[in-house]
Design a protein that fits this description.
There is one protein chain. This protein is α/β, with parallel strands linked by helices. It has three domains: about 140 residues, no CATH class; about 100 residues, Nucleotidyltransferase, domain 5 (2-Layer Sandwich); about 45 residues, no CATH class. It contains twelve helices and ten strands. Strands 1, 2, 3, 4 and 5 form a five-stranded mixed sheet that branches. It has a five-stranded mixed sheet with strand order 8-7-6-9-10. Strand 1 and strand 2 form a beta hairpin. Helix 6 runs parallel beside helix 8. The chain is elongated. About 20% of the residues are buried.
Length: about 350
């Protein structure tokens, strides 16, 4: 059999084939960050990747003259873990000095990470997905990135606000709102409740899951009313349905700020209220049929105890009426009997 040997990356038809040489930069997703890997070192507790910035960034930002390289510094960033080892990027950043005005600057690394951040953008994305989608704790996320708990927590909160809270597109297409309270603080200080606002449009239309819109501290009519008042009037006019529990404060706030929307109770609270009503009805029927026998706070129980232990305190008429009552096994008020 004759074997045709072709150069790497070319075919007889002119198509391009991927190179057979492993590309660590692409594998670690550093090409998205404007970095290229120049070396690696495996330590017992982490993997360190030596990187450099692809763009030279030699032009002065003040006067536009070309700068000359002075020296370089190493910026360490926590990257998304590869395997069971946390990954750290040791990015070599060059420093330049302008030949015209003398201005000094460093290479732009904003594509790789935020200024003064300790996590790369890929590491920050991994932390947010691990916390929201995989339900990992902040401690587990910090362990996977090999950073302190406060570092991971502050970075995730800032990224969550940027992606979720500060995104103006998250309010688009909202037709059905859901509101409920949630206990988020289990300490004595501070308000332990928050008001949760959810977009239920996808659930009603069958186009997708529910989306979290916002969480407001407190559980009151005023908290929900202020949140609705902060939305544009055109957005409020498009809301058709507001699903809530039996709290009248939410209903009043929705009626004042969303007069065109229909207020309904969500199925969970409907079933819960129906179960509570059924349980109260069962207890009432049981008490009407059998009384409170066996309970120490029951008047009939107290009367039985008085009849057997304190007969000297009763008159003959009272003793006869109580004896006849117990024999008939009827439940009446003791005060009326005595």
């Amino acid at each position: 059999m004759e074997v045709l040997t072709l150069p790497i990356g070319e075919t007889s038809t002119g198509l391009t084939l991927p190179s057979s040489v492993p590309d660590l930069t692409t594998f670690c997703r550093l090409d998205e960050l404007g970095l290229v890997v120049t070396g690696q070192r495996l330590e017992p507790d982490r993997a360190v990747l030596a990187c450099r910035v692809v763009e030279p960034d030699r032009w002065c930002r003040r006067c536009g003259c070309e700068g000359v390289a002075r020296d370089s510094v190493v910026r360490r960033l926590a990257h998304e873990p590869l395997g069971w080892r946390p990954t750290t990027l040791a990015v070599t950043v060059r420093r330049y000095r302008c030949t015209g005005c003398g201005q000094a600057w460093r290479q732009d690394t904003t594509q790789a990470a935020e200024p003064r951040a300790k996590l790369s953008r890929r590491g920050l994305r991994w932390a947010l997905e691990a916390l929201v989608c995989q339900h990992l704790s902040v401690a587990r996320v910090a362990e996977g990135l090999a950073v302190a708990w406060n570092t991971a927590n502050d970075a995730v909160l800032a990224e969550g606000k940027r992606v979720l809270i500060s995104n103006p597109a998250r309010f688009e297409g909202v037709r059905v709102l859901g509101v409920d309270e949630h206990v988020w603080r289990h300490t004595r200080k501070g308000d332990k409740y928050v008001t949760v606002i959810i977009d239920l449009t996808g659930i009603r239309d069958g186009s997708g899951p529910a989306r979290l819109l916002d969480m407001v501290e407190g559980r009151s009519k005023q908290a929900f009313k202020q949140w609705l008042a902060a939305r544009p009037q055109a957005w409020r006019d498009r809301v058709e349905v507001v699903a809530m529990d039996g709290f009248t404060g939410f209903k009043t706030a929705a009626a004042e700020e969303l007069p065109k929307a229909v207020a309904v109770m969500d199925p969970f609270h409907v079933v819960r209220l129906a179960g509570d009503a059924l349980d109260q009805c069962r207890r009432r029927v049981q008490q009407d049929l059998h009384g409170h026998r066996g309970r120490k706070d029951d008047p009939l129980f107290k009367a039985r105890r008085t009849l057997h232990t304190g007969t000297d305190l009763l008159t003959d008429t009272q003793r006869e009426r109580l004896t006849a009552l117990f024999a008939a096994d009827e439940h009446v008020e003791v005060e009326a009997t005595c």
